[in-house]
Amino acid sequence: MSMDSLKDLYIDELKDLYNAENQLVKALPKMAKKASAPQLKRAFTDHLAQTKVHVERLEKIFKGLGEKPSGKTCKAMKGLVEEGKEIIDETGDDSVLDAALIGAAQRVEHYEMAGYGVVRTFASLLGDNNAVATLQRTLNEEGEADKKLTALAESVINVDASKAEENGASKPKGKKRRGRR
After folding, report:
1. Structural domains of the chain sorted by starting position, each given as residue range(s) with its CATH number in brackets
2. Is 92 left (phi over 0), alpha (psi -120 to 50) or beta?
3. Which CA distances in Å does 168 have to 95, 172, 176?
């Protein structure tokens, strides 16, 4: 794609986000399955439903622009999803793995917030006020998801993970503990 105008860049960035969101639609169920804390499982499944709405919103923006959303792979999200997959494939204490999943999810949220902030600004400069409102709504939701993950980490998950470390001397490494919640 030739980048000769801000609109060209805007469309390219939207395609990047569209691909990123679709990668998440595939990754979030795996993260939910790996999570052991019920609250974390719920956070991932709730965010999956929200991510599907984000995909639909982007499709509406593309339709309004007369563009197709396909044709680009978001390499950054591909890398973030791969890091999440590494955690999914790990063994160890459930609460520590949950803390690792939250860390991976928050890196994703921060990437998305940066991307949505960029395209919202481009939409504003291009006078696409409907897209501005839609993109801001999604940006707000990504920020809320990040805040929920932070609250969950600080109130439950990371606390449990720190206790696992205290008890870790008597527990053989590589064994999973289930049913603690």
Report:
1. 6-165 (1.20.1260.10)
2. left
3. 12, 8, 12
Q: Give how far Cα 145 sits from Cα of 1, 50, 102, 125, Å.
A: 33, 10, 11, 27
The pLDDT > 70 percentage for the chain reads 90
Q: Within a 10 A sphere around the Cβ of 136, how many other Cβ atoms?
A: 15
Closest CA to 115 of 5, 8, 4, 9: 9
CA-to-CA distance for 105 and 98, rounded, in angstroms? 10
**Residue tagged 């309004």 (tokens):** 64
pLDDT value of position 166: 67
DSSP string, 59-78: HHHHHHHT--S-S---HHHH
Residues of the chain with pLDDT under 70: 1, 165-181
Helices (H), 35-155: 38-65, 75-88, 94-125, 129-152
pLDDT for the residue numbered 178: 39
The predicted structure's pLDDT at residue 123: 98
3-state secondary structure of 90: coil
| Distance spanning both ends of the chain, measured CA to CA | 51
pTM of the full predicted structure? 0.88
pLDDT, position 1: 64
The enclosing H or E element of 93 equals none
